[in-house]
Write a structure and sequence with these properties.
Layout (H helix, E strand, L loop, with lengths): L35 H26 L14 H11 L3 E3 L5 H7 L3 H8 L34 H13 L6 E6 L6 H12 L4 E7 L2 E2 L2 E2 L19 E6 L3 H17 L3 E6 L19 H9 L1 H13 L3 H24 L20 H4 L8
Parallel strand pairs: 1-2, 2-3, 3-7, 6-7
Antiparallel strand pairs: 4-5
Helix pairs in contact: 1-2, 1-3, 1-9, 1-10, 2-3, 2-7, 4-10, 5-6
The structure holds thiamine diphosphate (TPP) and magnesium ion.
Length: 366
């Protein structure tokens, strides 16, 4: 008998289903609360993420970074909290992924060099901002087509299940992507085959300039899960420790019972991309969000109020991460450009295909 995942046994023939239960994720937090040192580390990661992206924005205005560039500033608690719960699992994400890459363990140098298009970048300077990959840390990219990467998580999770790896695949996507057909198809199959996927919808209120209520009549995106019988939860993502706990709960459920859809409410502080001045926001919305729910400010306050951490310690973290981010910039700036002869390398598996025999796909061969 095959080891392949198979749909759960179901009664044959037509039958009337009872009304769906809420299918909420069990409310218990599976991890002990983060202690002072863990919280300091989560704070450090979020602060580094923000600083790296502030420098990326600066580099963009100096035309050191070209093409698309989507910043994650404001959403840091989602990637950092998720990494603290699923650091050893596989991740797949979309184009707003510098923060995810960093949280998953891709070095800041390799990220910045990729943004600068240099050969020392995570994708050898050939991917750019939207296509950061690092197999060594199970970071499976970096995709530009909205929603198209979501089904790939099923494939990765299927492989994990067949190889009995005890790992999940975490896939991140936006509120806009949750309206794409590929997303619905992925949910449907993941639940049918009980695949260990944690689907994370980062609801940052906008898809480009379109607010959520103008994209979808249903604004609790986690409820999409009910249509396929999947376990779900909607949560606010401002508190990195809360994200850590709920993603850990989702991971546990995904390994034991099958996939989970988490909708994590967050907010992006910059425009959709570097070319978007974000004039579509209601006046005061951005400032209000920063004041109420900036993940860095909230965590700094928690460290100070609940753990007695002094301002000098916070300042020390910022001095360190400023130096680390600047080092990433310097490294990128001083790195070589990719050799033009490598332009077609890694595009096709040309060497293995019959196409390679008569088509000069590789720059080295032509
Ligand atoms: C299939 C497809 N349609 C349209 C686009 C253009 N596009 C790029 S990002 C984006 C908005 C996606 O918003 P969301 O999923 O909420 O992610 P966010 O940018 O907010 O992180 C759109 C429409 C695209 N890249 N791919
Ligand atoms: Mg969005």
């Amino acid at each position: 008998m095959s080891d392949s995942p198979s749909p759960a046994d179901a009664p044959s023939g037509h039958h009337v289903e009872p009304p769906p239960a809420d299918r909420g994720l069990p409310p218990e937090n599976p991890l002990p609360d983060a202690d002072k040192d863990q919280l300091l580390e989560l704070y450090r990661q979020m602060a580094l993420m923000r600083r790296v992206e502030e420098l990326a924005a600066k580099a963009y205005t100096q035309r050191k970074i070209l093409g698309f560039c989507h910043l994650y500033i404001g959403q840091e608690s989602v990637a950092v909290g998720a990494a603290a719960a699923t650091g050893g699992d596989h991740w797949i994400t979309a184009y707003r992924e510098h923060g995810h890459a960093l949280a998953k363990g891709v070095p800041a140098r390799a990220i910045m060099a990729e943004l600068f298009g240099r050969e020392t970048g995570a994708s050898k300077g050939q991917g750019g901002s939207m296509h950061i990959f690092d197999k060594s840390v199970d970071f499976m990219g970096g995709y530009g087509i909205v929603g198209a990467h979501v089904p790939m998580a099923n494939g990765v999770a299927w492989a994990c299940k067949q190889k009995k790896l005890d790992k999940v695949c975490v896939v991140f996507f936006g509120d806009g992507a949750a309206n794409q057909g590929a997303f619905f198809e992925a949910l449907c199959l993941a639940e049918l085959y009980k695949l260990p996927v944690v689907f994370i919808c980062e609801n940052n209120w906008y898809a480009m300039g379109t607010p959520l209520h103008r994209q979808s009549a249903l604004t609790d995106m986690s409820l999409r899960a009910r249509g396929v019988g999947m376990t779900r939860e909607q949560l606010e993502g401002w508190d990195v420790e809360h994200v850590r706990q709920r993603v850990a709960a989702a991971r546990k459920h995904a390994l034991e019972h099958g996939p989970v859809l988490l909708e994590i409410i967050t907010y992006r502080y910059r425009g959709h991309s570097m070319s978007d001045p974000a004039k579509y926001r209601p006046q005061g919305e951005l400032d209000g969000q920063k004041e109420r729910s900036d993940p860095l400010l909230l965590t700094a306050a928690k460290l100070q109020d609940q753990h007695g951490v002094g301002q000098d310690v916070i300042d020390g973290i910022h001095a360190d991460i400023d130096a680390e981010a600047q080092d990433a910039w310097d490294f990128a700036d001083q790195s070589a450009w990719p050799d033009p002869a490598t332009l077609y390398d890694f595009v096709y598996g040309a060497q293995e295909t019959s196409l390679a025999a008569d088509t000069p796909l590789s720059g080295k061969e032509s």
